Amino acid sequence: MNRQDDTLQAEYVAMEVRVRGRVQGVGFRPTVWRIARDLDLRGEVLNDAHGVLVRVGGSSSAVNDLLVRIKNEPPPLAQIDGIETEVFVGDLPPHFRIARTIAGDAHTQVTPDAAICPACTQEIANPFERRFRHPFANCTHCGPRLSIVRAIPYDRGNTTMAPFAMCEACKIEYSEPTDRRFNAQAIACPDCGPRATLIRLNGRATDFDQYSMIDSIDAACCLIQEGEIVAVKGLGGYHLACDATRADAVARLRRLKRRDGKPFALMARDLEVIRRYCSVGSVEKRLLTGTSAPIVLLAADGLQKLPVRIAPGLSTLGFMLPTTPLHLLLLLRFDRPIVMTSGNVFGEPQIIGDAAAREQLAGIATHALVHDREIANRLDDSVVREMAGQGRVLRRARGFAPAPIALPRGFETAPELLAMGGELKATFCLVKDGEAILSQHQGDLENPETLDDYRKNQALYAELFDHAPVALVADLHPEYLSTKIAREQAQARDLRLIEVQHHHAHVASCLAENAYPLDAPAVLGIVLDGSGWGDDGTIWGGEFLLADYRGYQRLGAFKPVAMPGGAQAVREPWRNLYAHLVAAMGWADFARNFAQLEVFADLEGRPRSVLDSMIHNAVNTPKASSCGRLFDAVTAVLGICRERQAYEGEAGSRLEAAVDPDALRGVSDDLAYPFSIHHSERSSLPYIEPLGMWRAILGDLDLKTPVPVMAARFHIGLAKIIVTMAKKLACDDAGEAAPRFDTVALSGGCFQNRVLFEQVVRRLEQQKFVVLTHAQVPANDGGLSLGQAAIGAARLIDAEAIEMESVGPNISQTMENGSCASEFQAAS
């Protein structure tokens, strides 16, 4: 060791620095190398299964500067979860270097796929660059990650880039720490990387002579401009693209894809194009241009309009910017939006295989823009919406998964477990090293291919994260496919099975996302959704739960109303309308007072005697305290969506869209539709009674009040009664003592309704409640597995503590069974 004087010798320190988080495949090592070289330090930086390891020696001030700069100057895609230091004893290289990766058990993060960065964007547009118009340009700041990875560590040999041998020029970039492509595993150029090709899906050769084109991508652009539908192989699956301004092309795509009403996603070249059709606020701009590049729901209030069939009955459009160089090149000459919807037929998952695309999309698209890089893992586009000034994830997939979520204080000792999620909008969640690793959106498990993908991804995540669960966590519903799989796996693998009530998991998901500590006081969870299995064997869906991670107590609910036909009532809103009117006032009262209304004539002509018999005899008419079904009924009475829903949640989405902003501002609390709170004679449970609302809305129909005004009055009235119930529950039985709770957690799919969500949040905050809401994780069932994971972890931590204290087994069994009041009281 050469030192010029004794003072420098005394200052010399050697440290080993462990950096945990999203630090592999994002340019972290060259960043550390550059900083260390600037500071004249010696040592090395390397990847291993735990993250990034830095061994460094030099003056104490320089080593300290290195630590500060690592924290403050990480590369764009990095996320540092922790930096740990200890004294290093051993030999260090004389100059700072980047060392080889050390393999081992995985304790680090896989990075989500990232949208094309500004540097790569400029490069593919510059004819003097060697990657000019190269559709697979990427660097450590952007490009594919989860969609191409097969195993950890994230090295080229463990990705679908393995078949593409790097050319000499790419090898130099890959090996040079000062280059932004240093160790970029998906590095490619026109000489050595994947290639895009335009093919005809009927198998015939493509005649490029008929197009004025530069390459296959430009030819695909020409086809779309001419009104054709083109299949495009993207990052995580195939899309179907057509000109969004051509009503004939949009109508043809709907017919051939058999997608009657669900809105189409759109892609535009830049923000300028989007702003012609939608307003884009500062939050929405940040979401659109961020590295995740999700679909962002925007108010369709621009000067130019797109065909109605893009998003029938809705007031929003879902836009995204180009996510890859291929998409950017496709849109360079396109001065208007294109539809970019998932490449599948109705009810099927997005296609990722080339053979499947040729077989299944040939009846929809004339051509396909394909490439020869395999898609390892299916990734749908994520969906985000700005509500109450914050971007909130509605579907978590490309760009977000599998970035982990740190579990709150108290979960540090949680063992590894796997939470299976729900059946619709399914996800699963791994717990490891104090983090929750939430999978990408899987879809509806009723579809066999989606179920196969769900099983395959669980195996993939187990390998990627070297995950060996000691327990499985599932929904309480006995017929959920995710629950059945959990039971099968628990038995086959001799694992503990923990079953969790649906709405308790929703509350826990919101708590975990907001870093609410394990031992913090219980909150009021308000969960509004379509349906979930209650612990009393009935269907819940409008719940007020006093809850923490360990347990819950049902304090209130919406009025239970029969669902004539069960699942059929979900698809046909008129059934819920009939059941609600009969439950609220009876048919005779309805006929006596409102026979002059069109809705009366409609329902009079329905098979009422059959429905009456079913309700009377309790045959396939489960009662549900569901807020979602209330939305369906109101949408039906207003004639917005009465006969049939084309997709889940259509009725509620259309009802929200019917609210005119001016009407909303013009509705005073006095004119909002009235609800009341009654008590159940059987259980004394307070419930929200909608009779006053039904009389008021039917009266407005008779007065021919505009639908936007009625929709606004309903939303405000509903928000008011929700907050009134929260106030009542906080103070009931409190006497002179403090309220039962001061914090409220909002969850469930109904809170993706922006009008209802913002009204409830504002009114709760006016009443001085602390309000916890979702942002990183969907409020719908896509976030269910996170809540299951948190509850399961809490029970296992408590069971371990009980075992260590040698307390009898009965308490542990009670916790695992998940009973309602007894469990919460034990936890309290």
Account of the 3D structure:
The protein is of the alpha/beta class and 828 residues long. The relative contact order is 0.09. It is 35% helix and 19% strand. The termini are far apart. The longest helix is centred in the last third of the chain and has 25 residues, at 707-731. It is built from 28 helices and 30 strands. It has a ten-stranded mixed β-sheet, sandwiched between helices.
Write out key terms for the chains shown.
828 residues, alpha/beta, 10-stranded mixed beta sheet, 9-stranded mixed beta sheet, globular, disordered N terminus, disordered C terminus
What's the gist of this structure?
This protein is α/β, with parallel strands linked by helices.
Low-confidence stretches: 3-9, 807-828
* Rg over CA atoms: 29 Å
Q: Which percent range describes the beta-strand content?
A: 15-25%
What is the helix tally?
A: 28
Secondary-structure-based class equals alpha/beta
In one word, what is the shape? globular
Strand arrangement, largest sheet?
6-13-7-8-12-9-11-10-14-15
Distance between the termini: 61 Å
Helix coverage percent: 25-40%
Number of E-type strands: 30
Mean pLDDT: 91
Query: Can you summarize the main beta sheet?
Result: 10 strands, mixed
